[in-house]
Design a protein that fits this description.
Blueprint lengths: L4 H21 L17
Length: 42
């Protein structure tokens, strides 16, 4: 293998991971949706 091959791939991975984490932090948290019956007396 060429010198620097693993280092380049590691750097690419770290950059993708940083971008993914940045995007993940800005996503709104999903709230669980609770379905209720139409007639509350049931």
């Amino acid at each position: 293998m060429a010198d620097g091959y693993l280092e380049k791939h590691q750097a690419d991975y770290e950059a993708r991971k940083e971008a993914w984490l940045r995007k993940k932090r800005h996503l709104p948290k999903a709230k669980p949706h609770i379905e209720r019956p139409d007639d509350e007396a049931l």
